[in-house]
Amino acid sequence: MKLGRNTYTTPLRGASLRSTSAIVTAIVAGGLFIAGLVTWRYSGVAAAGRSWCGVVYISAYFAGAVGVIWLCWFWLKLARTITFMTEALKSEKPLFVGSSTNSLINELSEVINGRIESYSNLLERLQKQVKDLQIQVQLSRRQKGNTEAIIYSLHDAVIVIDEFDRLLMANEAAGKLFNFDFINSQFKPIDSLIVPDKQEFVDFLRQSRQSEVEATRHEIEFLQDERLKVLDCIISCVYDDRQQVCGVAAVLHDITREKEIQRMKSDFVSHVSHELKTPLASITACSEMLMDGEAEDEETKIQFYSVIQNQAKRLNRLIEDILNISRIESGLIRIEKSPTSLTIIIEEQLQMIKSYAEEKEIEIITQTPIIHDVVYADKDMISQVIVNLLSNAVKYTPRGGSVRIDTLVDETSGVAQVTVSDTGVGIPKDEIEHVFDKFYRVSANSNQAKGTGLGLNLVKQIIEKVHKGRVFVISEPNVGSTFGFELPLAASHAVEAV
Amino acid sequence: MSDKKVLVVDDEIHIVHVVAIKLRNNGYEVVSADNGADAFELACEAKPDVIVTDFQMPIMSGLELVEKLRQCESTKNIPVIMLTARNFAISQQQQKDLMIMQCLSKPFSPRELLGHIEDVLHSKEVSKQNL
């Protein structure tokens, strides 16, 4: 509905004029009628004597007739108007425009009310939209909070930079890795925050942004706290609405440990294959010599047979070591514990190591046997522990050295302790904590003797995991090492079902 | 019968023993050592015609031994045959640079080793005659 000046003023003015002219006409007609009646009433008396009375009489009569016609016309119009209004009211249609001030006010009120209603509806819709937007903003804030919480709690370093290489976001791990504080570093150029020896990372960020490739992966190495760190770095481009690169996000995952394990596994495979192939080489060579008749006398033949037998045993021991570690770790090993004398086990194992020690001209020193050294243990497993410690001691002791084995019993604490000391090459301080790790070989000593890095790990697994004892080591480079273990005495140990 | 001298180096005493018997049975004189350092001294003293050495040994490895041999005037031309239980322990380039005539993987055949020693010595003879 349009609110126009002409639409409302013109009909109102027309209506006013028409009613005024009707009133004037009615008054004039009425006046003339009354004048005619008066003239007619008094004209009979006067007309007898005067001729002008006839003219007056005719005029009055004519005027009265005209007045009556006009009066009839007026009443007719009035009746039509009343009929029209009645019909309009019945049909609830607005009365003809400009009929009165009230109808104008009513009409305007209607227009205004209509407007108010439409504006109210509009306002309602806008308020709803504002509410929706507020909810969306709240949700976005919550999502942002959640995302930030996730990013900040990550162990992986996360860094986001804009198209001008300025830092937009970094988590705590990134701050630690690159040694900066995010709060004070936001919006600073990234190359000013990262020290020159780690600039390779900044170069990768720039390259990724410039290349506009969705995601790239790099392996980065750098020194941190004097240790080599290896990081798997995934850099992803961030795009704006026009699909233009507006920054990059980098996630750096520390793979130093994985790399170390990978290297240790690779070394292990290499060592194991070497250890397996060495006895196999002796067996193959001796059997071929026997087949070719190269052993001329009986003594040489016996030597070859003996080599084959011993090397086959060595091969079996190695395979057993690997399997035992695997079984202990998986909990599938069969354990048969019983009261066992450590002295007896030591005596048996000394016999086994004797020839090896003699080969290297190494003196084995033993103490007087102790009587009360019975522990509740799996005899075969403890035998393996002792032979491993003794063979290690002989292996890493130079020719002419000595190896000493001692047993101590502390009845007060109910513990038996066995120590194997050597005058060998020793272990550097920074490597001592790793000597019981699986596959670990002391780097400085790896040239001294061959090994798989399994023997000491097996000792630790048997003593600590199977028998709830304790292993320990004391060592000084170029002086010697003492490896030992403690087990609860059988007397103080409740017999347990296995 | 041959009058050639072979130096056998291995920390596995059984291997040295077997190889020595095989070579002696075929007329070779054999000297032996159980590590690289002792082997180098022996090579300088005994001037062997060929050296058979293990790759991984205590004190000084087979590779370190060959490097040292190549730096010494009196031993730089002694042909070397390497025994190794590690595959790909020596690259082709290293083998060429250090004049390692042959690399045999463990377990090896003493018969095959003898054949390689004879080939190496024969090549050496031919080279000498050509000079």
Shape verdict of chain A: rod-shaped
**Which CATH top level class of the largest domain in chain A fits?**
Alpha Beta
**Broad CATH class of chain B:** Alpha Beta
CATH topology of the largest domain in chain A: Heat Shock Protein 90
Encode the helix/strand succession of chain A as letters: HHHEEHHHHEEEHHEHEEHEEHHEE
Terminus-to-terminus distance of chain B: 25 Å
Mean pLDDT rating of chain A? 82
CATH superfamily of the largest domain in chain A: Histidine kinase-like ATPase, C-terminal domain
Sequence of strands across the biggest β-sheet of chain A:
2-1-5-4-3
Proportion in helices of chain A? 55-70%
By helix and strand content of chain B, what is the structural category?
Answer: alpha/beta
What portion of the residues of chain B fall into strands of 2 or more residues?
15-25%
> How many beta-strand runs of chain B?
5
Kindly report the spatial arrangement of strands forming the biggest sheet of chain B: 2-1-3-4-5
Number of domains of chain B: 1
